[in-house]
Amino acid sequence: MSRIRVAVLISGRGSNMATLIRAATDPAYPAEIVLVLSNVAEAPGLGIARAADIETATITPRGFSSREDFERTVDAELRRHDVELVCLAGFMRLLSPWFCERWAGRLINIHPSLLPEFRGLDTHARALAAGVGRHGCSVHFVVPEVDAGEVILQAAVPVVDGDTPETLAARVLDAEHDLYPKALSIVASDLRTRAEA
Length: 197
Ligand code: GRF
Fold this sequence. Notes:
By secondary structure, the chain is α/β, with parallel strands linked by helices. The chain contains 6 helices and 7 strands.
């Protein structure tokens, strides 16, 4: 059976990207990672992708006169690789309505909170400040409004006495690494079923 061609967009460490690459080494997994694209030239994740023989591209916004020009270049790179589905994994740039609509239903993100709680940045510190007993992560479709798209899968972790933003982030990150490959599998299987129908 054919596999869905996936690009992963990163800006940094790339630990979630690495779990997607690892999951896709199983030929039975419904997605293959055909491109890792970074908007930051020094992103450590690029080295991980190259070591796994995945094609990489760097497109930094600096060279472009507008957000639209930057995104059109990203979009062209995705099309050049016949990408069918895009995974954001620590991609630290807001995407315009134009891009979100162009990839609607084919653009997913992992966010470190139990959405709709704690959209945006600094989720772990905010969860601790709010005194919640559980926190977690969500994989969701991307829409123009930040962290507001339909949730595909979530995983919860406990908040424990003495947690700092760092200890909580580490617990959530472990859950993210388990969650993202499962969520990608669901979305890719669904796209494949629809393509073959
Ligand atoms: C993760 O916590 C993810 O949820 C958030 O950014 C972080 C990226 O980490 N969107 P990594 O680059 O995948 O290691």
